[in-house]
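Morning, I've got a small favour to ask if you have a moment. I've dropped the whole record in just underneath, so have a look.
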Amino acid sequence: MDVFDDLAAEFDRLDEVLTGLDAPDWERPSACAGWSIADVVLHLAQTNELVLASIEGRDSLLEREPGVALDDMMDRLVADDRGTAPGDLLARWRTSAYGSLDSLRTCDRGAKLTWVAAPLSPRTLATTRIAEHWAHALDITDPLGAAYPDTSRLRHIAWLAHRSLPYALSAAGVQAGPVRCELTGPDGERWEYGDPEAESVIRGPAAEFCRVGARRLPADRSTLVTDGPHAALALRHLRNYAL
């Protein structure tokens, strides 16, 4: 599966959802505490614009203030930029989403693009955009009672979560040995990540694994199974995104 094609598909699916919203829907509370649905879309547009800034070398836009948490920084950006009419906000999101996708596609494959926690390749940055748009699409659709079916695109998010485990554990100040994941995709596919000889294993539905990593499902409320000395700790600190 090509990550850029799958990012385009994720954008297309969210575009269908947003196109179907009426004016009052945009002001409804999302599943993100303190944010309306319009705020979530604004955040996605802003972060897509940060992708473009990174590609164009305007890295100063990605600099974090010392002592300011990323969530607080993002909340401030949204608060400072509220008030756009829904039609204009949708147009801004579309321009930023598909513009960032086009730029990522044409980047040198070996480029290292400045991002929140560390420089990323264009393909990995595209993967983070799939993860963020998928998670925030749930924040939009769940409160509306709208469907947002899981797809094979979760493969990218599961890979990102597993690959980010060392970073997530380090950020939490804990240590753990190698962990492998044996996951079942939405259509019954078997997805495996990590050293096949690792003692610690996380098993179960990829959809739940990705939701735990997105902090949309508490690990102890999932049906995921952990075996070995480090699997439960890894699952507790799993994340699909940077601090």
